[in-house]
Write a structure and sequence with these properties.
Helix content is 24%, strand content 22%. The chain is of the alpha+beta class.
Length: 192
């Protein structure tokens, strides 16, 4: 397969991305505050976002924004008629941004792929974009069980939105952590 570059949406004439996962800044005249100068075409060097994905920073009208390379590749080269929100790396290697290694997925499809194809776990800290550690989630559940904290208070204490606390408490996230009944809640009577 031959490398092909395409314009990046909203950065036409400024940046392009290739089917090999490379991003380049196009040659153009740029104002640096003192005068105009020629900015030559260069391949951008991506940086790691801290969890293995490659990121490039694109600048337009004095505003610089970071973009995930795999999402740029997918947006430019892979049709998404079902409007799926996530891009999956088929081989599980987050830095492998060749177009043939990427596919559009839902969150569930992405997690199923991790479990069924790659043999990985999607729970808790292994999920990838977690903000909390498992011990913090256990603390949150223990504090909630005392009935002395509101979801808003717990959210503020752990620097997450109260909806995140709601999802933890109602077993929508971090499902693998054992829940205990709140203190003072009635216990089930044994069947006699």
């Amino acid at each position: 397969m031959k490398e092909e570059f395409r314009d990046i949406k909203d950065y036409e004439g400024l940046y392009q991305v290739s089917n090999f996962g490379r991003v380049k800044s196009l040659e153009r005249m740029t104002w640096n505050g003192y005068g105009w100068y020629l900015c030559k075409e260069i391949i951008l060097k991506p940086s790691d976002n801290g969890i293995g994905y490659f990121v490039v920073r694109l600048s337009k009208d004095g505003i610089e924004i970071g973009y995930l390379v795999h999402q740029l590749v997918a947006n430019a080269f892979i049709p998404n008629p079902e409007n799926k929100p996530e891009v999956n790396h088929k081989d599980g290697i987050k830095s492998n941004n060749f177009v043939w290694n990427l596919e559009w997925n839902t969150s569930k499809e992405n997690c199923d792929h991790k479990i069924n194809v790659l043999g990985k776990n999607c729970n808790g800290e292994k999920q990838g974009n977690h903000k909390l550690k498992e011990l913090q989630v256990i603390e949150i559940l223990e504090k909630w069980a005392t009935r002395k904290y509101t979801m808003l208070q717990l959210g503020n204490e752990y620097n997450v939105h109260r909806i995140t606390i709601f999802d933890i408490i109602h077993n929508k996230t971090w499902k693998h952590i054992k829940r205990t009944p709140p203190i003072g809640s009635p216990l089930k009577k044994p069947n006699i």
